[in-house]
Amino acid sequence: MERLMIPGPAELHPDDLAVLAEQTVPHYGDRWAPFFRGLLDDVAHLLDAETAYILPGSGTAGIEIAIANLFAAGDRVVVPDTGYFATRVAEVAEALGLRVKLVATPLGAPVDPDGLDLAGADGLLAVHVDSTTGIRHPVEELARRARAAGVTFVVDAVASAGGERLRLRESGIDAVVTAPQKGLAAPPGLAIVAFDRRGSEQIRRHRPRSWFFDLTRWQEARDKDEWEPHPVTMPTAVVRALAASVARIASVGVDSWIADRHALAGYLRSRLRAAGFDVFAPDGHAANLVTVVPCDDPDLYARRAIRHGLMIGRGLPPLAGAVRIGLLGETATTASVDRIVRALEDRT
Amino acid sequence: MERLMIPGPAELHPDDLAVLAEQTVPHYGDRWAPFFRGLLDDVAHLLDAETAYILPGSGTAGIEIAIANLFAAGDRVVVPDTGYFATRVAEVAEALGLRVKLVATPLGAPVDPDGLDLAGADGLLAVHVDSTTGIRHPVEELARRARAAGVTFVVDAVASAGGERLRLRESGIDAVVTAPQKGLAAPPGLAIVAFDRRGSEQIRRHRPRSWFFDLTRWQEARDKDEWEPHPVTMPTAVVRALAASVARIASVGVDSWIADRHALAGYLRSRLRAAGFDVFAPDGHAANLVTVVPCDDPDLYARRAIRHGLMIGRGLPPLAGAVRIGLLGETATTASVDRIVRALEDRT
């Protein structure tokens, strides 16, 4: 099996793999309930949020949860089209009956907050780092624009949380969505949705047309059920591995953890450029967890990586002519960076 | 940690724990896609269904998926009130905008198919084994009634699949819902929804107001995407452990596997009765995976179990005055049955 240098899922720390191998525990009771409540608090802290929810699901489920609990059918939302995952966000909003304005933006540049017309909108939904391009978009400036326009702002941080700083409470982001298998270096299988205080108040005013995704129900279980702090069976193994990884990040310190990823991504870009490769993201806007390298023959580079025992990601539409390199989990090391650059260079 | 004799989650086979401990694999590519498609076929076969879907989620998510894809808001459905999980099914249908008739039924008896009035209904939603009572309800007879009345029939088999025979294709059940952590002896974290041919055709006529739970989207990915046969990131570790457990059941043979559970549940009931305990389910309708023992002081019996290193379930409303014993996974053995009966008897 090749080592994973894809933009997710991440390879797991051996200690977290050992947690996964432990016998199944009940998702309720005197040990589980305080443990799970503590994890919710730790995840909220890591995301700088007022409150966090963890549900069985995926990043896309999290997008649906955030939208369904913050907006009603018929609401108008603006989505800057930053790539594959922005169109996904727009699709989810449309499936929920929202009126979506997908705003064209230059693919190779960060979204321009001043160019966004939010008149008449109820919400702004933006991708923090679109894995299509490896560009980090200016969500804090977008938050100020959204706050000024009085619209609710949701950030898709699936490809950024744990790798880029999020400052919900000071910036005015109402909700962020992520998943465990990227910057949090945990196994896939969960949706993570976090809110600042304003977002948290707003979810109490909307009940989605869904039982499972209705966060008011999840909040009630957390508040009232001493025995089982969630309304459904949780993926206990995955949750426990997430807790182990979150504790590890906390032990380093979130800021240090992210600074390390920032330095490593800079090192990857400098090594790539020294080897004659381009990096798609403009300087100052390059993401920490995913680096996109435009190329004519992505398959060639993917095969070179495999020959060296590594797996990288292919380009995603509309930027199919690229490879994508992830710096997540156990392969976020300078040794891995050296190895992948050597592999991409290897013409033998 | 106590051994689990609760009605779920199940303790896992050591080989499946070893699968969970393996490094994360990508949820796409040449190895994953055929593996996942094969698992869908194997699960459909195990449930005697035409087609099965596996999504990140839980049993309740599966109920929502089945209802959302088979019915539209405003549709009328009948739900026999067989206990806690029947009220859950009714709640989910109501959250989706269906008009629900929750039909009172005697708690201590199987649903009487001839007593059900399906006039004007679009659907019948019934729980196969309600974990509240440990009673197995006659879903095949209900299927005949539903088919005669021209209504769509959905079975909540969360507490029965893998432990009770389901015959979708011959009986006319349109859809069944289950989850991995009960009779399939796998880790929690997935929703499993399976359809016979008629149910499978019907889901193509309804698009739910949801992106994530829209099975047409899941079917398209399975049909068309050679690289990634599902539209979101899957909980790879949990899926792989489910596949290992499903393969183990298939190697025994589904019928033999279920016959073993039937014999073991009979043995538990005879041992309990010999020790002076009651069993709530009437003879001939007792479930294989969960046995409910009415008692005045459930806490006393739960404490006795814990003193013997075992964990049993407490009663669920409306039958709180009971304990519930699960025969799932690694503790579905005669040795465990002997041990739990000794524990419940132990007055020291």
What spatial form of chain A do the alpha-carbon principal axes imply? globular
Based on helices, strands and strand pairing, what is the structural class of chain A?
A: alpha/beta
Radius of gyration of chain A: 20 Å
The tally of structural domains of chain A comes to 2
CATH superfamily of the largest domain in chain A: Type I PLP-dependent aspartate aminotransferase-like (Major domain)
Task: Tell me the number of helical segments of chain A per DSSP (H or I, 4 or more residues long).
Answer: 12
Question: Assembly state here?
Answer: homodimer
CATH topology of the largest domain in chain A: Aspartate Aminotransferase, domain 2
* Mean pLDDT over the residues of chain A: 97
By CATH reckoning, the class of the largest domain in chain A would read Alpha Beta
Q: What is the largest interface, and how many residues per chain? A: A-B, 53 and 53 residues
Q: Biggest sheet of chain A, strands in spatial order?
A: 2-10-9-8-5-3-4
Task: Write a structural description.
Chain A is 40% helix and 17% strand. With 348 residues, chain A is of the alpha/beta class. The first copy, chain A, has two domains: 3-8 and 253-345, Aspartate Aminotransferase, domain 1, CATH 3.90.1150.10; 14-251, Aspartate Aminotransferase, domain 2. In chain A, the strands form four sheets. The first copy, chain A, has a seven-stranded mixed beta sheet with strand order 2-10-9-8-5-3-4, sandwiched between helices. In chain A, helix 1 packs antiparallel against helix 9, helix 10 packs parallel to helix 12 and helix 11 packs across helix 12. Chains A and B meet through helix 1, helix 3, helix 4 and helix 9 of A and helix 1, helix 3, helix 4 and helix 9 of B.
